[in-house]
């Protein structure tokens, strides 16, 4: 007998701290985002940022009470190194160091809380979405390029976390022996070259002109600014080489590109596709390199999926049988 999840049988509150803004959502059991809110910008760092996050989740919690929605748990996707107990071990851009985010939120929200690295969450969100709506991809690399550069890996349909749960720090792969200093303290990390701040800095230094955002840089490139296009192309080339190395090593089915930079710039995507397929011919067969299907919702759906897995530790094919039923 085939069983199917009742989509409105429960809901998850979700928050994603990727990029310059803070995104909140309510996700049902079919992984549909039924409510989504985005703040204009992150409030500073440290304690102030935590307060902004907590208050946003409390507002969603109140909204669910008014609408009689049963909240099963809370998921948070955040940049940084995340321990298995929900501690943010290191998130320099957020001002959190050995901060037990899960413990604080569970106390303030009186609810189960799952904390996951933002790129890992987005990778799992893309995997689940594709399994439900498009095609199942069991071996996938997700790369997010935004204020930082991160990645998530799905192997054999499972999120790969590594020995200490810290896998996926592609942004800190060294691409230059004498490069700029990264926020992690090392020099020459991919993030110093390919992130939005890295490209903005590169353009400003070479042009002598100030720009406010990557969106402006991408607009200039599309409008015929040769230098802007060159800066984006150079960053994408380096990123593409790093991705090609992963393909050679891991024999992937797909590479999914997300984050603000990838969702904004067609040129960035185009160049990455060119370089990412510079691999052994046999490893290119059937390989898909594409832009994210979910955009800013990937992290929200990902942490909701991981929360469901935590509460109901059974095969996703049992919980979400649509792909299995139509592709057997």
TrEMBL record:
Q: Which PROSITE patterns match?
A: ROK
Pfam families xref list? ROK
In the UniProt record, the signal sequence range is none
Going by the entry's taxonomy, the superkingdom of the source organism is recorded as Bacteria
Gene3D superfamilies, per this entry?
3.30.420.40
Family designation: Belongs to the ROK (NagC/XylR) family.
PANTHER family found in the cross-reference section: BIFUNCTIONAL UDP-N-ACETYLGLUCOSAMINE 2-EPIMERASE_N-ACETYLMANNOSAMINE KINASE, ROK (REPRESSOR, ORF, KINASE) FAMILY
Its name, as the record gives it, is ROK family protein
Originating organism: Alicyclobacillus ferrooxydans
């Amino acid at each position: 007998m085939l069983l199917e999840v009742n989509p409105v049988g429960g809901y998850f509150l979700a928050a994603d701290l990727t990029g310059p803004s803070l995104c909140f959502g309510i996700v049902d059991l079919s992984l549909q985002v039924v409510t989504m809110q985005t703040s204009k910008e992150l409030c500073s760092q440290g304690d102030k940022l935590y307060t902004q996050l907590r208050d946003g989740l409390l507002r969603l919690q109140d909204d669910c009470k008014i609408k009689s929605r049963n909240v099963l748990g809370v998921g948070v996707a955040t940049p940084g190194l995340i321990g298995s107990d929900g501690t943010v071990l290191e998130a320099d851009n957020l001002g959190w160091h050995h901060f037990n985010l899960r413990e604080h939120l569970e106390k303030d929200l009186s609810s189960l809380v799952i904390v996951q690295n933002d790129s890992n969450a987005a990778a799992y969100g893309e995997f689940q979405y594709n399994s439900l709506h498009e095609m199942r991809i069991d071996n996938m690399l997700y790369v997010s390029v935004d204020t930082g550069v991160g990645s998530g890996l799905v192997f054999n349909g499972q999120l790969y976390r590594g020995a200490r749960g810290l896998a996926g720090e592609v942004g800190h792969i060294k691409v230059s022996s004498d490069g700029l200093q990264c926020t992690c303290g090392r020099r020459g990390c991919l993030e110093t070259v390919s992130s939005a701040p890295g490209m903005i800095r590169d353009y400003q230094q070479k042009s002598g002109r100030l720009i406010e955002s990557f969106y402006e840089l991408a607009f200039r490139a599309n409008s015929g600014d040769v230098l802007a296009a060159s800066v984006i192309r150079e960053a994408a080339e380096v990123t593409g080489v790093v991705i090609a190395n992963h393909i050679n090593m891991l024999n992937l089915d797909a590479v999914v590109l997300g984050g603000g930079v990838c969702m904004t710039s067609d040129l960035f995507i185009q160049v990455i596709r060119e370089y990412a397929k510079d691999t052994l011919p046999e490893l290119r067969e059937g390989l898909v390199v594409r832009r994210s299907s979910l955009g800013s919702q990937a992290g929200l759906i990902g942490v909701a999926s991981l929360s469901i897995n935590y509460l109901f530790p059974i095969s996703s094919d049992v919980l979400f049988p649509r792909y299995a039923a139509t592709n057997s």
